[in-house]
């Protein structure tokens, strides 16, 4: 294995991405252009100024300002042309960053203001993704991108959105998700949707354990049957060291000794998650912005990886966090002591956990990921 993990090497590393929001990854230049076409007012009128506004708002610590950023991205995603362009550019940007497989998620119910139907929204996104895949292949950066259709947990459309996802399962939609505020909107409100998806043999993940704690994770798994956990960072609340919750220990997890890690005790829920190999879709930079973690060095992803939970590394919202898969890897290398073996493990974990047929997952692992890391 290469001894020095330079940014150039990390960028060429083949990556797998499971948790990336389509409406959180737009190019500022695209937002400016599309906003001008539809007459939508923005807080800045230059690419640099708009990019800076998104970064400042996302890092402000104000939930109101953070949510306002999505008002502007979603506003330019209300036409078939806008949706297709955003999807196409998403694929191109991921491919340029070394991503070989990705699942991009979005909520169709948020893209109806321009008169599109739910099915037309999905079709427009899939058209854009297929075009992006073709352009990436022509550029010598082949990538496979599937989509997850998301229902908003505060709304009452989850069953309708679940049926929408299943209708498009042979056109690129590979899974279902619920997203939005956890507190006050437990996943059990959407049991009808999850029961329907299981009857249809369809995959789904659930945002849980980000802003809310263990009860949200427990409901997502034990009541709803989630195959993966979106974020799941709060599973760390179920870990103790010498009877002390690990969250109360000030030493960053990156600095823990092997003896400390081996002495960590897992609560029953944490043990179940690890034993069942339930994937955790972790997003370090985003978790810092939302207060789910205090720093990269103290982010639970490092401790959970050392405890051999099935951890995956993700971007969440590339625009709002000013990030990419390469940047997330660079941060963990620089601030949490990760090496190539850690990057290999999360990449293989992601492909093992992808909502692809087994043979297709295996093909990407054996032919794209392992050759880079094992040579």
Automatic annotation (TrEMBL):
Site (Important for catalytic activity): 231
A Pfam family per the record: A_deaminase
Reactions catalysed: adenosine + H2O + H(+) = inosine + NH4(+); 2'-deoxyadenosine + H2O + H(+) = 2'-deoxyinosine + NH4(+)
Residue span, Adenosine deaminase domain: 14-367
Residues annotated to bind Zn(2+): 19, 21, 207, 316
One term of GO molecular function: hydrolase activity
Cofactor(s) recorded in Swiss-Prot or TrEMBL: Zn(2+)
First-tier enzyme category under EC: hydrolase
Assigned keywords, A-Z: Hydrolase, Metal-binding, Nucleotide metabolism, Zinc
EC number: 3.5.4.4
Keyword Phosphoprotein assigned: no
Active site per database record: 210
Cofactor note: Binds 1 zinc ion per subunit.
InterPro entries tied to this protein: A_deaminase, A_deaminase_dom, Ado/ade_deaminase, Metal_Hydrolase
Top-level taxon of the source organism: Bacteria
Binding-site positions, substrate: 21, 23, 180
Entry's family note: Belongs to the metallo-dependent hydrolases superfamily. Adenosine and AMP deaminases family. Adenosine deaminase subfamily.
Function recorded in the entry: Catalyzes the hydrolytic deamination of adenosine and 2-deoxyadenosine.
Protein name, per record: Adenosine deaminase
Species annotation: Ornithinimicrobium faecis
Gene: add
